[in-house]
Amino acid sequence: MRTLLQAARDDDDTLELINQPWSEHDTQVLVVTAIGIAIVVLLITMLKMHGFVALTLGSLFVAIGSGIPLGDVAGVFETGVGDVLGTVGVLVVLGAMLGKLLADSGGADEIVDKIFRGSTGSLPWRMALIAFLIGIPMFFEVGLVLLIPVIMLAVRRSGLPAMLLAIPALAGLSVLHGFVPPHPGPLAAIGNLGADVGITMALGLLIAVPTVIIAGPVWGRFAAKLVPIGAQGGGGGIVAGDTGGSGEPGTVTTRNPTFVLTLVTILSPVILMLVRAGVEVWASPDAWFFPFVSFIGEPLIALLIAVLLAMITFGTSVGFSLGTLGSKMTESLKPIASATMIVGAGGGFKAVLVEGGTGIAIGKAAVAMSLSVLLLGWLIAVLVRIATGSATVAIVTASGIVAPLATGLTPTHLALVVLAIGAGSLILSHVNDAGFWLVKEYFGMTVGQTFKTWSVMETIIAVLGLLFTWLLWLVV
Questions:
Q1: Which residues are CB-contacts of 351 (< 8 A; sequence separation ≥ 6)?
Q2: Domain boundaries, position 369
Q3: Which pLDDT tens digit goes with each residue over 298-344?
Q4: So where does this one cross the membrane (predicted)?
Q5: Number of domains into which the chain is organized
């Protein structure tokens, strides 16, 4: 069965669907989507239902209400769950293993010791800088699971509110995910619009710096007051780096890994992915090294290599026995089981929204408005993001829709359209977004607390992105 998600990735199919007249079905899917989202929120907040069950029920309602044939409903949902668990879920598992070894070996202490050199007041800024650097080549989910142990240990060491340090790190990762190649969304928009990679990357980094500052350390101060939780969160979240030997031989380290060795280990997937991105942009696919570099730079393979390296640098070399290593890696999976399944259900919810036609209906409404190509691209991305929960789908759909309108623009203006679309794709992350549930579960927040902190931060990023691209549009 060909899904609308696949159609959204094809410019011609998307434009054909968007240009069709408004129908009763378009109105129907928008109403059903709004009700479905409300059902999920109410089931979790009022009935205290587990997120996986709530998202599953909400998905079934949206699927049936959108007109997906009953025989296809389960398959669409299961496909969405499988797509997310096959990508995000695997990365979370590997990241949790790496994070556990990083924390229990003392590697996280080495990083935090370096971070703490200086005033505590500048700690949020340093967290934002670290996340910004890691976020250049790395997917958001990968960067998050790598940074969680560092964030949590920094919170415990400093005694500062969790959101004061977490929001700057989250902002650094999120901004880079939406604005800067080689992330998949910006690259797809560059391809659809025929923009220049170098110009887009340069302007993206230029816009990213002030956006991270405002959405990160500045907003983090307000978020910490709105949700004053500590290292373990408000709802018993995943606390990375819980140590505690079992008394068995080899459960206590004899020495900490050095700072350099720690940095090499946790940055190894970053380096591998960055090299892959550079090779895919600048090298010929016919080059002898192209397949190998592409393979080891895949997020899954890069993280797996990092875990294998960590078994030595954070394991046997610091005194852990092989049995202890196996036990610790098993322990790392227990706290993330619930979060991983919730993330999977979020993928199923997104799949039924896309398959039901919500994104297409939103595209029709946006195109009917007489707006500049910059604002139109941003608005379509905003609406598709809110409806489907996927930043990548929002970018691909919006860039495909506005591509005919961008003909004749200068390379600089084309790059700005790409960045505006990328900004819009980040807005208002909520219950249909895997990132929402990852942040909620990792920091042990309630749904309401996640909306107050994470969702607001994402909206700040989207609005600032539009503002900065518009200002540059006027002066270049």
A1: 3, 5, 59, 76, 77, 79, 80, 81, 83
A2: 4-475
A3: 878 888 998 999 999 988 888 888 888 888 888 878 766 776 787 67
A4: 29-47, 53-77, 84-103, 123-148, 160-179, 199-219, 259-279, 299-323, 365-384, 391-409, 415-439, 451-473
A5: 1
